[in-house]
Amino acid sequence: MFNVFYLLGLAVAFVGARGLFLSKANSLLLQTISYFCALLVYNIFFHPLRNYPGPLPSRATRLVWDYYAFKGDLLRHVTQLHEIHGEVVRIAPNELSFRTAQAVSFKGISFFKSAAANIICL
């Protein structure tokens, strides 16, 4: 997955720099920006968890989760998200939160043993 984004960044940098003289620093900056833009687009529109509800910033990046975890209000924030979005909420690009254990079985989701340890049930 990440190799595709790196190649996309190289392609954008090449097309953007065509006919222009860009220093290595500017080319690296352009590649970095294009990589993160492609990652945001992937997390919102093409990620396997894209169909689960959740706020757009939480679906796009993990920064919202990190902010509330650092602040110490993650549990309160996730509880509010469950009140708004229902039993299953996407709280980060790669993470779902389930209000009850029955929500896991009703959705027909199967997990590996290591992934089951990351489930937050409120």
Features:
122 residues; mainly alpha; 2 domains; 3-stranded mixed sheet; elongated
- Work out the radius of gyration: 18 Å
The proportion of residues forming helix, as a percent range, comes to 55-70%
Order of the strands making up the biggest sheet: 1-2-3
Number of helices: 7
Number of domains: 2
Major sheet description: 3 strands, mixed
Helix and strand element order: HHHHHEEHHE
Average pLDDT score: 78
Instruction: Report the count of strand segments.
Output: 3
Helix-strand makeup class: mainly alpha
What's the overall geometry? Answer: elongated
Our estimate of the beta-strand percent is: 5-15%
Low-confidence stretches: 112-117
Give the end-to-end Cα distance, rounded to a whole number of Å.
32 Å
